[in-house]
Write a structure and sequence with these properties.
This protein is of the alpha+beta class. It has 19 helices and 15 strands. A five-stranded antiparallel sheet has the order 2-1-5-4-3, with helices on both faces. A hairpin with a 2-residue loop joins β12 and β13.
Amino acid sequence: MSSLVQTRQGRRNRSSGPEPRNAEPCKAAGEGLPDLAEAESVLLGLASIFSDPATGRGRVLKEFSVDGDGRAPNLEAKYRALLEQIPAVVFMAYLDRGISEAYVSPQIEAVLGYSREEWLEDPVRWYQHIHPDDKQRWSLEAAEMFLSGKPLRSAYRVIARDGRVIWFHCDAKMMRRDDGRPWFIHGVAFDISDLKRIEEELQEERNFVSAILDTVGALVVVLDTEGRILRFNPACEVTTGYSMKEVQGRCLWDLFLAGEEAQRFRQTFEVMRTGLLPQEYQSCWMTRHGHQRLIAWTSKLLPGSGDTSNYIIATGIDITERKQLEKAILDISAREQRRIGQDLHDGLGQHLTGIAFMAKVHEAKLVEKNRAEAEEAAKIVKLVNEAIHKSRELARGLLPVVSDSQGLMSALQLWAAEVEDLFGVSCRFQCERPVLIGDDSMGTHLYRIAQEAVNNAIKHGAAQNITIQLAAEQGRGTLTIRDDGRGIVEGAASSQGMGLHIMKYRAGMIGGTLDVRRYAACGTVVTCIFPVKEE
């Protein structure tokens, strides 16, 4: 297309040239863009019309026409006046009359810095100022309009007089006479530079966000209001073994959740749709290879506007290994406590018992001989017996639940009695039917939860009556601690208190849940629900 400018002078000296008004019938729409050589030929022919000295040069279409009596503008003048109020460049050129009948609206000067006379006096000025990266595309699209009659709708860049790059959206159409001959071209070009700049900024922002989603180690899932997956970042692909293509458009619970976990998540999702998102929640995902992964989630609802739908963005952290390590550490700690407790009871306790027996024998011998040292021996026996009692208390504190299925019930019964003796309050243990816990670790966690709840009721709630209830039904156990104290402050259960956090953690370690809330007018009720293996 560079020859379009280079051969401008040569075209002025031609006696004839390819003119659109004498062109062959147009191609049928849909045959595709012409090749570059064909496009060049068509545009050269068009330019030659406007370069022909016989048709006149450098004169803009008259501003107004008047009636025979010279008093009022005609319809064409009114139409032109209306066009010049439009905030866009309007152009029109007759294909059989040359430059004298060409028209461009005054906005050309405001946008590109060229007057209408300057713009119209050079038939190739428009092409010269098209951005180099857009020239070939514009040439092909313009030629297709002349050959096929298909309207031209395109966006391209034009370089203004001062060097600025202006984006135009152009709509143009070639009109034909009744006999099919080309008549004139009419079009409008809107300055869309601001829109393009905003689009570029948005695209940069989208690219930035996409880069973050693609590189962040957290799992990021975007769902629609039906729970279908719209976005699935690479961290999700690595964790689950599924690609974005495989999961897109499918409901999350149909892929990664099963059984009660799927039902629980769907209930949580219904709450999400209303905007009342839980601050944190966990769910167990099933990977392609059948492995379970525990994910800690936080969610955000993005409300739509107008025709835009709501979306839910969920960000998750795979805490499977962390939970396994925490459980291993806790199990090691529990085993060490049991070992120390057994050593205190079976080792030190038995040793002290032997010393007490020997001291008692020595005391008896001294009494028989009426020796004054008999009284001191009696004191030694008393101190050793006290040491035995304290060692047994320490052993029971480290190993509260004995290793049998009824150990938890026995430990809670004993604890309730000790609370009454130590603190002078009413503390009762209720268990209508035996709840057998064969797992020593689970029994110890439940005992510690009850112990912490009772201590909180006495220390913080000043309770006078405490009830510890243990029950089980259909594979689900319930441990409830209820008191008549001052009651927990609303919101405190989730925001403060290390004891409460430890209780919830212990409940999670045994696959259960913990609920702490104010009971009626006063007092607090702590409820731990946990799985029980049916015998």
